[in-house]
Specification:
about 200 residues; binds S-adenosylmethionine; seven-stranded mixed β-sheet; 8 helices; single chain
Length: about 200
């Protein structure tokens, strides 16, 4: 993992993420909207990858809904929080650029997925210039007819995240053989907006 470029998450200011979500959880706020939409996109008992899972909030909720979930996350401090909070959530500690079927097989985990969730601004916190590489790698992990649920702030996102206009994202997806099936502005399927991108990708 050491030879991979540092993510914007690693090089940026990321304090506050756990504290913010801990408070939301304590306050009883809704923190699983992404999981509700993800759940609606697949059949019961599907196989789902939570890519850049953070402390596992979305993967754990999808698991609670009966899916077979694998979470993957690079930040070891977040992996530790996930292990404490969601001990039954299978977690691979890895950079997503190194997440291959072979690595998953080594961990005795599924190697292809009906759905990949890439939510919570992961795509705008990758290492610079690695978006296409990441999307191409995720495409390799999709089952036939599998889809990717992506969510991010296209401009003015948190901390160290990049600006990533929707059209550039769609071009990057197309360049690696993925197409935008649907675009919304929220996880409640509001119309597309400039503030937030919710996109569902499938093989082109
Ligand atoms: C804002 S957090 C969101 C975490 C989680 N998806 C959520 O919604 O709660 C962004 C996450 O993306 C992860 N990330 C960014 N680039 C990554 C990469 N190349 N490999 C693995 N994780 C990555 C960071 O480590 C961080 O946990």
């Amino acid at each position: 993992m050491n030879d991979l470029p540092k993510t914007r998450w690693e090089t940026g200011e990321t304090t506050g993420y756990i504290e913010r979500f801990s408070k939301l959880i304590d306050d009883g706020a809704d923190i699983v909207g992404e999981a509700r939409l993800g759940d609606a996109l697949v059949k019961r008992g599907s196989t789902i990858l939570d890519a850049g899972a953070g402390f596992g909030r979305i993967g754990a909720e999808l698991q609670r809904r009966g899916h077979t979930v694998v979470a993957a996350e690079k930040d070891e401090s977040l992996v530790a929080v996930a292990a404490e909070r969601y001990p039954d959530l299978p977690m691979v500690t890895t950079d997503l650029l190194a997440l291959t079927p072979a690595l998953l097989k080594d961990h005795d985990l599924p190697t292809s997925f009906d759905l990949i969730v890439l939510v919570g601004n992961v795509i705008v916190l990758l290492a610079p210039q690695t978006e296409r590489q990441l999307l191409a790698g995720l495409r390799e992990l999709l089952a036939t007819d599998g889809r990717v649920l992506v969510g991010f702030h296209p401009v003015g996102g948190h901390g160290s995240s990049r600006d990533y206009p929707f059209d550039e994202f769609a071009d990057d997806a197309a360049a690696v053989g993925l197409t935008v099936q649907y675009r919304f502005g929220t996880y409640e399927l509001d119309p597309p907006s400039e503030d937030y991108v919710v996109a569902i990708l499938a093989r082109a």
